[in-house]
Amino acid sequence: MTSTQPVTEGYMCKTDFDCELGRAKGGNPVYPSIEDLKESRSCWNECGIVKVRVEHVETILEDNF
Questions:
Q1: CA gap 40, 32 in Å, rounded
Q2: Are the beta carbons of 7 and 42 closer than 8 angstroms?
Q3: Where are the strands (E) in 1-65, listed by range?
Q4: What pTM, to 2 d.p., does this model score?
Q5: Quick count: other Cβ atoms within 10 Å of Cβ 35?
Q6: Is 37 inside any structural domain?
Q7: Domain total for the chain?
Q8: What is d(CA 53, CA 33) in angstroms, rounded to the nearest whole number?
Q9: Which domain holds residue 25?
């Protein structure tokens, strides 16, 4: 299946990625830069940082503004 939708890259706490992604109530943040993650999360030095890709697969509900 080929997607014509863009893929966005970002950064996450490695512990969130390893243990909580898809399970955490309220979701997990993906930051646009390493610097933004470091400013927002104090755990980065202990937990580590991963680079992720988020792919748009399907629109479930169109926006309505």
A1: 11
A2: no
A3: 7-13, 49-55
A4: 0.80
A5: 10
A6: yes
A7: 1
A8: 13
A9: 7-55
